[in-house]
């Protein structure tokens, strides 16, 4: 598996717990944990961290993330991907899609894109 996830600090920790319970070999880190950006880190800095460390950001930030991504790309950077949770997304659907993407997705498939989860 080559897809790694960085969960936004505003997502409930239950997402990480359940992802690892269902698929223990996933690499799932959460903002604020050791080795990742601390809580309160600005989104542009998080995007840089994801680029350097090859992590897809999973967030519920639907409003400003498209602006931050556009600025990031305009500066000549890239991002492995950003997954934005749809409003009222059920956790089970989100988990299923994240696991499916990790198992079947190509690591470059989501580069420089925002994808809304669940996929359908």
Strand order of the largest sheet: 2-1-3-4-5
Number of helices: 4
Quickly count the domains. Answer: 1
Radius of gyration: 13 Å
Q: So, CATH architecture? A: 3-Layer(aba) Sandwich
CATH class placement: Alpha Beta
CATH topology: Rossmann fold
Question: Helix amount, in percent?
Answer: 25-40%
Assign an overall shape: globular
Question: Can you count the beta strands?
Answer: 5
User: Gap between N and C termini, in Å?
Assistant: 23 Å
Determine the structural class based on helices, strands and strand pairing.
alpha/beta
Largest sheet: 5 strands, parallel
Proportion of residues in β-strands = 15-25%
Summarize the SSE layout with pairings.
Layout: E1 4-7, H1 14-22, E2 27-30, H2 43-53, E3 56-59, H3 65-74, E4 82-85, H4 91-104, E5 114-117
Parallel strand pairs: 1-2, 1-3, 3-4, 4-5
Helix pairs in contact: 1-4, 2-3
